[in-house]
Amino acid sequence: MPYLLLASVVVGPLTGATDVFSDLGLQLASFACGLPLAALTAALSPLTRPMSVAVVRALCGVDPAELADGPPRTREARARTAAWFTLHLGAGGILSGMTLAVPPFALALIALPFVPALRDSDKLFPRTADHPWALALMPVAGLVMLVALAGCAAVASGLLARWAPALLGPSPADRLAQAEERAADLAVRNRLARELHDSVGHALSAVTLQASAARRVLDSDPDFVREALAAIEDTTRRTVGELDAVLGVLREAGDAAATAPAPTLADDLDGLLRRTRAGGTEVTARVDVDPAGLPPLVSREAYRIVQEALSNALRHAGTAVALRLARDGDALRIIAENPLPDDGAGPPRPGGGHGLRGIADRARLLGGTASAGPAPGAPGTWLLDVRLPLPSRKEPKIP
């Protein structure tokens, strides 16, 4: 109606008519002039597609996956949105006019044989009394008109529902944006899962081993027990802090999840080694690189890799682990060795573990490599070897 009224302001002066709505031809001309105005506003307004998609989802029974969300991103998508809006508005305007005019006229036809006042009106139904057969067919004609009106509405609804996915569906740019959004979300989820696995998994392994060692020497070595209990307290306190940070990120909206805090080699390598040794595990560490000089991202990921290497040693070996960190050309090299159990494999875990996969993922995201398995030339030894790229600097390679 707003577009029709606006167009009538133009059609009236152009045709010299003082009352546009008293002439059906001028009404149709105003209607035709209003459609381009509707298309123009639909193309310019970013809210047209979200509103139209909401209408289609509510009324047309279209699969939501076939419709795009948000404003159109490209000129082609805006053109399709304008086409849908104009088509919807045009069909709705025609059906609205028919709904206003047809039912009263059809009801009058149905009542014509039974209401003499209608038959006597020459303006409405002139000379119907002169044709009894026509009078008898009037109710049938009225019913046919009502059925035809319902049929027109059903056909228009079906056509609009069929055309909606083509005109309001996602464009290639929309699909690309959705894929990127899903990929970013999965990346954040995977990172948070790795953070929780490495942090909580290491803490549980360390605390279990420390508590077990303390229980065995409870009566014979009180100093060791006190040291183990202090390590348990320190480990759990740090892990609860990391867990709170990760869960806080999960509760936040937007892209804040990409900045989940995590310890680094410079912050806590010594503490990590100390807490691991407190459980009775012999940890031999050789650090030939300055942790404070590493890039923050590499330092953070390297810390988690070292943490997971120690966790695996605690779970599967529990006796000793040798760790080395050094610069190897343009990469940080992390090597961890520990003895295998007597059967040559770690104890079975229900559902399997994700630690080695997490190490490989962290190395790959930084452009590095990771390998793990029985050490070649050293039977009974498990070897983890990780390379993380660093800024170029000439140093001797690790033999």
Automatic annotation (TrEMBL):
Top-level EC class as recorded in UniProt: transferase
Composition bias of kind Low complexity appears in 367-381
Q: Name one Pfam family in it.
A: HisKA_3
Is Transmembrane set as a keyword in this record? Answer: yes
Under catalytic activity, the entry for this protein gives:
ATP + protein L-histidine = ADP + protein N-phospho-L-histidine
Give the span(s) annotated as Disordered: 337-399
Under which EC number(s) is this enzyme classified? Answer: 2.7.13.3
What UniProt keywords apply to this chain's record, in alphabetical order? ATP-binding, Kinase, Membrane, Nucleotide-binding, Phosphoprotein, Transferase, Transmembrane, Transmembrane helix, Two-component regulatory system
A cellular-component GO term for this protein: membrane
Q: Where are the transmembrane segments?
A: 26-47, 82-115, 135-161
Q: Domain Signal transduction histidine kinase subgroup 3 dimerisation and phosphoacceptor, which positions?
A: 189-253
Task: State the InterPro entries in the record.
Answer: HATPase_C_sf, Sensor_HK_TwoCompSys, Sig_transdc_His_kin_sub3_dim/P
Cross-referenced SUPFAM superfamilies, in alphabetical order?
ATPase domain of HSP90 chaperone/DNA topoisomerase II/histidine kinase
- Which GO molecular function annotations are given, in alphabetical order? ATP binding; phosphorelay sensor kinase activity; protein dimerization activity
The domain of life for this entry's organism is Bacteria
Q: What is this protein called?
A: histidine kinase
